[in-house]
Amino acid sequence: MPRCPPVARCSVPEQQGKNPKMREAIHNLEASKIREVANAGMGRADVLAFWFGEGDEVTPEPIRQAAIESLQQGETFYAHNLGLPELREAVARYMSGLHPAIDAGRIAITSGGVSALMLAVQALVDAGDEVVAVTPVWPNLTAQPAILGARLRSVPLVPREGEWTLDLDALRAAVTSATKLLILNAPNNPTGWTLTRAEQQAILDHCRQTGTWILADEVYERLYYEATSNGCAPSFLDVAAPDDRLVVVHSFSKSFLMTGWRLGWLVLPPAMVDGMGKLIEFNTSCTSVFTQRAGIAALAHSAEITPRVVAHLKTCRDTLVPLLAALPGVKVAPARGGMYAFFRLEGFDDSLALAKRLVAEAGLGLAPGNAFAPQAQGWLRWCFASQDPQRLVRGVERLQGWLSAQARA
Is pLDDT larger for residue 407 or for residue 149? Predict the structure, then answer.
């Protein structure tokens, strides 16, 4: 074996090893406060955990079986960047049953809703661009533009007796011709706030005037508890033209109980599709075939799966929210969509500290409100997607007992 050249030639340059770190935008990212709370309680069998945005029911058997059969048939190779044609067609039929007709050529299959959102931001945002987001919102939606070096501004929703509402005039004032992208999540995680169709039309009209793109995270559209003709929340797809500057993100995670499968899709203007295929190539190349086969099965069984999921979640919501509302000092309103109760405890202004105390002292795991926006400091998010609604009742009993102990202290 050849010997190493003289030490001076083998050693690492003096400056190369000093304080190595990632890009500044990555270095400055905030760690997840939800994970911080969860890490404090994971592994404890006595903790009732409601901190993450998923239920505790496994994916329905027909979906799992489709993936098993795909693997048994040896479908373990690369697929088309934009997804299997069969799945793109199935998604288009599914979406066209809920909204004005959508061509399969506008659909891109992604490795989860998170990937879909990141792909959309990568496709639209340059470093230094101005991005406006409506908050409180799932932190990934504000972190993704920051990762790309964008300048982020927020338009906060306004809480009134536990219900969050949008100041449309404030949004229009914030979105100008300098705004490259507007990010909206409705039905909203964490608040349950949902846009009306009139608000969507007003926002779309305004963004047409300013030349601003809209990124609409509509993954919770089927988890909607108001009566509608199409069984889902209002969508920008109901008011927009195919060539509008609109990207809509969807996921199989919530409506089909498929959080761990990592399968989502984008609805794009036709002019974006080819470029999105290239972008997917440089991110994940494609979504695994067996996962896409599971997605095809999910859509084939959507008429039996999703209404059952929504009905059960409504039962969970209607079990939890009145019990929370009856506690002293609690402000909460029933969520119109989504799978969360977002509530405030009067007298407790530090959400993260409160959530950690509830884990340690009450065995109750909730997400801190300030994980979603500074304006949600003092609030807590409770995911009510529980297979057994009595588990929610036990959680409220723990919260009630803890509050009573604080009152006596």
Answer: 149
The bridge status of strand 367-368 relative to strand 364-365 is: unpaired
Q: How far apart are CA 74 and CA 290, in angstroms?
A: 9
> How far is residue 360 from each of residues 211, 261, 370, 371, measured CA to CA in Å?
49, 32, 19, 19
CB 75 within 8 A of CB 302: no
Mean pLDDT of the chain: 94
78 has a pLDDT exceeding 70? yes
**Cβ atoms within 10 Å of 163's Cβ, excluding its own:** 18
In the predicted structure, residue 344 carries a pLDDT above the cut 90? yes
- Contact call for residues 195 and 184 (beta carbons, < 8 A): yes
pLDDT > 60? residue 80: yes
d(CA 114, CA 249): 9
Crossing angle (nearest 10°) for helices 351-362 and 33-41 = 10
Provide CB contacts within 8 A for 324, sequence distance 6+. Answer: 330, 332, 341, 343, 382, 396, 399
DSSP 83: -
The letter for the amino acid at 244 is D
Q: What pLDDT does residue 94 have?
A: 98
Q: How confident is the model at residue 11 (pLDDT cuts 50, 70, 90)?
A: low
Q: Which residue has the tokens 């400056």?
A: 15
The distance in angstroms from the start CA to the end CA of the chain is: 73
Which residue in 371, 369, 367 sits closest to 359, CA to CA? 367
Which residues face 379 on adjacent strands?
344
Q: Residue 74: enclosing H or E segment and its boundaries?
A: none
Q: Which of 31-40, 269-278, 322-331 has the lowest mean pLDDT?
A: 31-40
Q: Which of 330, 375, 368 is nearest to 40 (CA)?
A: 368
Do 102 and 270 meet the contact criterion of CB atoms below 8 Å apart?
no
